[in-house]
Automatic annotation (TrEMBL), chains A, B:
Pfam families named in the record: CN_hydrolase (PF00795)
Organism, as annotated: Solanum lycopersicum (Tomato)
Molecular-function annotations in GO: omega-amidase activity
InterPro entries attached to this UniProt entry: C-N_Hydrolase, C-N_Hydrolase_sf, Nit1/2_C-N_Hydrolase
GO biological process: asparagine metabolic process; glutamine metabolic process; oxaloacetate metabolic process
UniProt domain CN hydrolase: residue ranges: 78-327
Protein known as: CN hydrolase domain-containing protein
UniProt xrefs under Gene3D superfamilies: Carbon-nitrogen hydrolase
Alphabetically ordered keywords of this record: Hydrolase
Length: 362, 362
């Protein structure tokens, strides 16, 4: 074959390794100019290939910092409920309605409840400032999360509280609160990737007109396992799911309101892809469809298993789905298809910036 | 809400940026110990959140080195053919058979031909050493690639030559050769991720018993666009597709022979996921199914568009599919759904190690 040269081979590893003694590493020579060549295949002289092979692979370095082992979950099997709720312009009704759905699901044995994205308000830039609550202030300033806290404590269940518009100072966020079975707020995720899309004649929406993006990933240990949180558009970014998996997540929960264009195109595909690539459970919950609203949700709340298989899904009407999650399946799938341990850290590395830069972060 | 502290906030960016002057950066403090805390949500004091927000997002830093712009392809529209070939134990027959399929596809106007994984040999560890060819030596030492070179030159077409077992010194590889329309070898991809899986009672195969893994990604500029190459199991690793996309690929080609277990589970899902996440074309080509062989291929060669939509697919029988690719759709999709520009380089970064470490690499 034609041998195509490359100017320099510098194969030393320039990123942090799993070796704890390597607390500092010097990075150099990372900016690669475009060349006039139209061929990008590298055919190193054979002796160089042989020289590098001994030191290659490094699957443990494909995640920076190194991937954490899957933790033993507090429960192996439990029931999850996806409450696909109808949402109206009446906030008080929405809160009472959500509470009833949660209590019904708890009556059916659900230990984990997932609510939809923006369930206390219409999904519109006009509504967000009107329906927003000051979650940090709590009490009367946040009747939606007060209800979630109370019902999680009274029913001894874990709630991934979908999302509501949050007011914090002069900013608005799209925020998901997680409550433990003692009613305490365990975590709050602010949507990281704002939904700004423009498909002419089909769907245009710009959350960034009113909302501010969150600043960090959210992974939380609950009574039903370690859960990574994303809100709707966050699911498009495979890196977020991958860093949750590397932090030892058992389950990813995405409250989401895909629309009538992106829903049929991508909603199930993305859920299945995240689950199959990360080999963990993915649960999503959408508002029920309301054809009369300005933003029409696709519905189709779904639970996906760690082979990317749809375990439970619904159409677009209001309903609550209850199904069992069995975490022992995760380890089984990862044994069958061990690609979590077959990555090529010598070729690509996914950096979790928060874990890399913040001591004590996880 | 409960405010949960974090020991230290160190938000300075510790990885290379798109700023060429930043040719060295000191990395520290990357090893994160497990703590006894069961809550991993970070709620920084508000003033810190505000302070960091100004410097956050950095979508251009989500790919290290920085993502290259999509190059203008030499052609916008062209026809691709996927030759889903039957494979026998008769190597000479396999070569003649492949040549006829390629010529038929060229007669139908195809400018790019994609062949299956391991099309000149049965797919088995016993066969690989017997059917392997010395591609670098060429001529009589590699009748399969000699045929590909001759037919690409005589018909003035580009061929992604599926894969064949390659002998190089004392090693065997699973290798894909790319020929330009002048018959010259443009690139050779050696399967990077070897197929070692064990699903009891369903599918067990360990390529690593006989094969050696390739050492680098392969992206090549052809007369029909910039193409990233993966072979079969390589498709499971989203990072490879993502670094090809960041190098400006228009199309990913995966010769592959998924089996009767992983085929129905994951073959189409992975193709669609890679296409939708990277917003480019994905083409795959499998051998036709032979129920009598030790390894039974799933078939289902497919072309997927940059919305993750299946444009063309087949069942398991021998056939050649011809369809049009329109690269202008890629830019349109990326304008509609601009998530390639919405990544959070402040939260995660995907490092292309070869481009990072090798001056002149692309």
């Amino acid at each position: 074959m034609e041998a195509i040269g490359i100017t320099r081979l510098c194969h030393r590893n320039l990123l942090p390794t799993s070796n704890p003694s390597l607390t500092s590493t010097f990075i150099s020579s990372f900016v690669i100019g475009r060349t006039s060549s139209h061929n990008y295949n590298r055919n190193f002289p054979k002796f160089l290939v042989s020289a590098t092979m001994e030191s290659s692979f490094k699957p443990e370095e494909a995640r920076v910092p190194v991937e954490l082992p899957l933790p033993a979950p507090p429960v192996t099997k439990f029931k999850i409920a996806l409450c696909q709720l109808s949402v109206t312009t009446d906030k008080e009704r929405n809160i009472v309605h959500a509470q009833r759905a949660i209590e019904d699901a708890a009556d059916k044995g659900a230990q984990l409840i997932l609510l939809p994205e923006i369930w206390n308000s219409p999904y519109s830039n006009d509504s967000f400032p009107v329906y927003a609550e000051d979650i940090d202030a709590g009490g009367d300033a946040s009747p939606s999360t007060r209800m979630l806290s109370e019902v999680s404590r009274s029913r001894k269940i874990t709630i991934i509280g979908g999302s509501i518009p949050e007011r914090s100072g002069d900013k608005l966020y799209n925020s998901c609160c997680v409550f433990g079975k003692d009613g305490k707020l365990l975590a709050k995720h602010r949507k990281i990737h704002l939904f700004d899309i423009d498909i002419p004649g089909k769907m245009t929406f710009k959350e960034s007109r009113t909302l501010t993006a969150g600043e960090r990933p959210t992974i939380v240990d609950t009574e039903v396992g370690r859960i990574g949180i994303g809100i709707c558009y966050d699911i498009r970014f495979q890196e977020l799911a991958a860093i949750y998996a590397a932090r030892g997540a058992h389950l990813l929960c995405y409250p989401g309101a895909f629309n009538m264009t992106t829903g049929p195109l991508h909603w199930e595909l993305l859920q299945r892809a995240r689950a199959a690539d990360c080999q963990l459970y993915v649960a999503t919950c959408s508002p029920a469809r309301d054809g009369g609203s300005s933003y029409v949700a696709w519905g189709h709340s779904t639970l996906v298993g760690p082979f990317g298989e749809v375990l439970m899904t619904t159409e677009h009407e209001e309903t609550t789905l209850v199904a069992e999650i069995d975490y022992s399946v995760i380890e089984q799938r990862r044994t069958y298809l061990p690609f979590q341990k077959q990555r090529r850290g010598d070729l690509y590395q996914l950096v979790d910036v928060e874990r890399l830069t913040c001591k004590g972060a996880k």
